[in-house]
Amino acid sequence: MERTKSGTVDFNCPKCKARLTAPRMDRGNRRTCPHCNAAFKVPLSAPAADPMNVHVYCFDCKATAPARLSYPGNNAVEAVLWVAGILPGLCYRFWRKSDPGLACSRCGSARVHPSESAAVHE
Ligand SMILES: [Zn+2]
Ligand SMILES: [Zn+2]
User: Fold this and answer.
1) Is residue 83 domain-shared with residue 114, that is, in the same domain?
2) How high is the mean pLDDT of the chain?
3) Is the pLDDT of residue 100 over 50?
4) Which long-range contacts (CB under 8 A, 24 or more apart) does 22-29 make?
5) Quick one: 77 and 118 in the same domain?
6) Residue 117 confidence class, pLDDT cut points 50, 70, 90
7) 3-class DSSP state for residue 104?
8) Half-sphere exposure in the Cβ direction for 4 (13 Å, CA)
């Protein structure tokens, strides 16, 4: 996914909303905003920066909609894996929680394009 800027995390200052960038290794660490001096924790993943301000193009709605955070996979698959055994279920859950993505806030679809412009050709 994040091939272009794999080394950094982009997020907004929780106080002044300034756009900030931190090295990925700083995730979860305390930092101070250079603009307003507010202390905050670097978010664990890029989309955690105020998802309500992000719009995505939804391939199911065929429209641009506000994004919300979603976790890959689904509960049905996880339930099956839990039945299959503790380890597959645990691995699947870990994978899901470790990689949150964006989803359409209208229909919940994860088939979205996190593009500012709606110019997406299918
Ligand atoms: Zn700030
Ligand atoms: Zn949608």
Assistant:
1) yes
2) 78
3) yes
4) none
5) yes
6) very low
7) strand
8) 2
Each residue of 8-29: pLDDT tens digit?
888 889 899 999 988 888 888 8
Please tell me the total count of domains within the chain.
2
Ligand nearest to the CA of 106: 2
Is the pLDDT at 1 greater than 60, yes or no? no
CA of 75 to the centre of ligand 2 (A): 19
Phi and psi (nearest 5°) for 71? -110, 140
| Partners of 16 in the β-ladder | none
Asked if 36 and 68 sit in the same domain, the reply is no
Question: Which structural domain, as residue segments, surrounds residue 19?
Answer: 1-46
Residues lining ion ligand 2 (Cβ < 5 A) are 58, 60-61, 104, 106-107, 109
The more confident residue out of 100 and 82 is 82
Q: How far is ligand 2, taken at its centre, from the CA of residue 106, in Å?
A: 5
If you measure from the C-alpha of residue 22 to the centroid of ligand 1, how many angstroms do you get, rounded to a whole number? 13
Per-residue pLDDT, 43: 80
- Both 87 and 41 in one domain: the answer is no
Pairwise CA distance, residues 46 & 2, whole Å: 9
Ligand 2 center from residue 11 Cα (angstroms): 24
